[in-house]
Amino acid sequence: MDRRTRFDGFVRKYVKLFRPRTAVIFAFPFVLGFAASAAGGGHAEGYEIALAYLALASGILFFSSLNFYVDVESDRLHNDMYKGDSHMSDQPFVTGEMGRVETALLFILSALACAVFSLLVDWRLACFLFASNVLILGILYSHPWFRFKNRPVLDIVTNASGACTGLIAGWKLLQPGTWPPAWPLVFGFLFSAALYMPSVANDVPFDAAAGFRTSGVVFGAKRLLDAMIPVCVLLVPLAVINFIVPQSWVFKLFIALALPGAMVFTAAMHILYQPPHIRFNAAQLVYPLLALLLFYFIYGMHAVMAR
């Protein structure tokens, strides 16, 4: 095997660990907070913004890799349905591509990079960015000492909490001494929970076979999908409140799109659910979210650089 082939294999391995399409979903709250903070007059130097996004990417690599690492038994059984962004059954920890030393270096360096890059910008940004990506979505969710992914209800709460903490981090990149309004965070928590439930429901056969106790395994896939309906109902009054209270148009635009999106998504999951799986390519969710993420990022950068 020549050097170029080895290098290409190395890059593909780490791209798979990073899971670019899923990364779009987890990066979105940070970018939303960044854009809303920019709309409110926030400012940072260009190099600080670059460092913050490097910290975000490092944190995403950390928790994505850790999730792969602890899910080996389930991923070996996975038929890759619904997880349209990546094949679980040939992820690097399943195939044995990751040695012990490389694995240890991956976790240490990615967590350290998240901390150091964000600290070079502001300690308050670092607290929330590190908490979101390394502590909540990484260690609490996946590490065997805590393994909230393996605790019914807590698996959903942990993901939704990570999203809200990420939004606060994005806000504090430009306005470290202030806080985003509370109502978008409440809406975002329930919205994130609703979007996460089908993934848990679809993994039931594999998680159950591996001995995991996720919300889907304990309550059943159909009941978990049904739980999306009252969550969507709760989103309606929260959306009304968010439209009434004075706050950035950035948040209001997101909620105006997210509310009908959550309802359509909930209906689609019920229609496409053919036990034991949801016959749906989750990668299709990423494209509209990516378009909105790019819009917010470009707007935020333009607003900051124009000052």
Topology:
Layout: H1 3-18, H2 20-39, H3 46-70, H4 72-77, H5 92-95, H6 100-119, H7 123-142, H8 154-174, H9 182-202, H10 204-209, H11 215-219, H12 221-244, H13 249-272, E1 273-274, E2 277-278, H14 283-305
Antiparallel strand pairs: 1-2
Helix content: over 70%
Low-pLDDT runs of 5+ residues are none
The chain-level structural class is: mainly alpha
Query: Any idea what the shape is?
Result: globular
Order the strands across the largest sheet as they lie in space.
Answer: 1-2
Structural description of this entry:
- Helix content is 77%, strand content 1%.
- The radius of gyration is 19 Å and the shape is globular.
- It has a two-stranded antiparallel sheet with strand order 1-2.
- The protein contains 14 helices and 2 strands.
- The protein has 307 residues and is mainly alpha-helical.
Top keywords for this entry?
307 residues, mainly alpha, two-stranded antiparallel sheet, 14 helices, 2 strands
Describe the structure concisely.
The chain has 307 residues and is an all-alpha fold. It is built from 14 helices and 2 strands, in the order αααααααααααααββα. The longest helix has 25 residues.
